[in-house]
């Protein structure tokens, strides 16, 4: 395409609307506020806080600290917290039996946070991986992650979480049919007000690496047939986009109230496609590897840390997301002047 010379557009000067802060604010197309953030938080059984090496600035919280963090979230205007458990190795087995432990870490953390700050929403991951020795999200039989048997366990886990006071169940396991099974069980148990935010389009991604350290996940691929080396038979192929829309459509049909795309920034095209195709709140998860990349560059002096945090989170809003699950939540809320 050949353009006429610039002189042909004497009136077209897009820089006019960029010249001062007031006019930039006036014409801004999307805005990030603390109300867009879901605080991704790791809890552990012990006392105090344990730093996560691959995630500078992030620590595992004790149940007591998680309760204090819930009050902090409330004061910062952060609507919700997503809680992930670091489970002691001794409590894991091949089938993730303790995933539905009503006296376990997740139940205790949820109760403590709801007691401390009932006005903050609590979201729980529905998946077996924190509880399995091999780190897979489901039960493995003959080298396969078996779908339907896993779902039975996920339903027990989700009902336990809901009874503990969890407001949003977030199935992150990618088994087929899990949203429908959870929704049916919630209705049957009189827990119809509990929401489901499905990890609808969740990709088999390298960017989850630091999370596995954070929750002390079992090592995938020990060489044993019962421990496949990756999650590609259940999580999505990063090359696909049409399939993401099928996943989202199915989860909506099964009763999901909100959906999520994960990881975040590398998959913004998927966020935009989902937002345009479906009329329901769509979230993105800025995952552990995205956090680690940004912090590593910032710590080397290669990026302006605060600007990069806010720019990366703002990008989700521009793409149409209702909000972002992020480890930066409390920091970002403070930077936003909460
Ligand atoms: C597992 C789960 C994962 C994350 C959230 N839930 C990892 C995985 O699927 O292997 C990743 C979170 C992150 O990287 O921050 N069900």
Describe what you observe in this structure.
- The protein is α/β, with parallel strands linked by helices and 338 residues long.
- The protein has one domain (31-337): Aldolase class I (TIM Barrel, Alpha-Beta Barrel), CATH 3.20.20.
- It has helices spanning 21-27, 63-76, 105-116, 147-164, 178-188, 209-214, 242-254, 268-277, 288-299, 305-318, 329-335, and strands spanning 37-44, 50-51, 59-60, 80-86, 121-126, 140-141, 144-145, 168-171, 195-202, 258-262, 282-286, 323-326.
- An 8-stranded parallel barrel has the order 1-4-5-8-9-10-11-12, surrounded by 9 helices. The chain has a two-stranded antiparallel sheet with strand order 2-3. The protein has a two-stranded antiparallel sheet with strand order 6-7.
- The N and C termini lie far apart (48 Å).
- 47% of the residues are buried.
- Ligand PBG is lined by residues 125, 127, 129, 137, 172-173, 208, 211, 231, 287-288.
């Amino acid at each position: 395409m050949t353009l006429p010379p610039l002189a042909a557009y004497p009136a077209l000067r897009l820089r006019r609307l960029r010249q001062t802060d007031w006019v930039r604010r006036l014409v801004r197309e999307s805005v990030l506020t603390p109300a867009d953030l879901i605080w991704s938080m790791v809890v552990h059984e012990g006392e105090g806080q344990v730093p996560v090496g691959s995630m500078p600035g992030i620590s595992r919280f004790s149940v007591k600290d998680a309760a204090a963090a819930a009050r902090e979230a409330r004061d910062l205007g952060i609507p919700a917290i997503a809680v992930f458990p670091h489970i002691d190795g001794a409590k894991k087995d091949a089938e993730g039996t303790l995933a539905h432990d009503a006296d376990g870490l997740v139940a205790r953390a949820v109760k403590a946070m709801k007691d401390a700050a009932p006005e903050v929403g609590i979201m729980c991951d529905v998946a077996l991986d924190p509880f399995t020795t091999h780190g897979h999200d489901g039960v493995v039989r003959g080298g396969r992650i078996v779908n339907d048997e896993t779902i039975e366990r996920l339903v027990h886990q989700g009902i336990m979480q809901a009874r503990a006071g969890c407001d949003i169940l977030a199935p992150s396991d990618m088994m087929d049919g899990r949203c429908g099974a959870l929704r049916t069980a919630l209705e049957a148990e009189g827990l119809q007000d509990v929401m489901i935010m499905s990890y609808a389009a969740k990709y088999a991604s390298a960017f989850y690496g630091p999370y596995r350290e954070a929750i002390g996940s079992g090592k995938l691929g020990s060489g044993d047939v019962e421990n496949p080396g990756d999650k590609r038979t259940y999580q999505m192929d990063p090359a696909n986009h049409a399939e993401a829309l099928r996943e989202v459509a199915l989860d909506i049909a099964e009763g999901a109230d909100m959906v999520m795309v994960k990881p975040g920034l590398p998959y913004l095209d998927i966020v935009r496609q989902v937002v345009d195709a479906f009329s329901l709140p769509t979230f993105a998860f800025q995952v552990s590897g995205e956090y680690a990349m940004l912090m590593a560059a910032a710590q080397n002096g290669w990026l302006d840390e605060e600007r990069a945090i806010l720019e990366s989170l703002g990008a989700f809003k521009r793409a149409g997301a209702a909000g972002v699950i992020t480890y930066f939540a409390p920091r970002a809320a403070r930077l936003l002047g909460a």
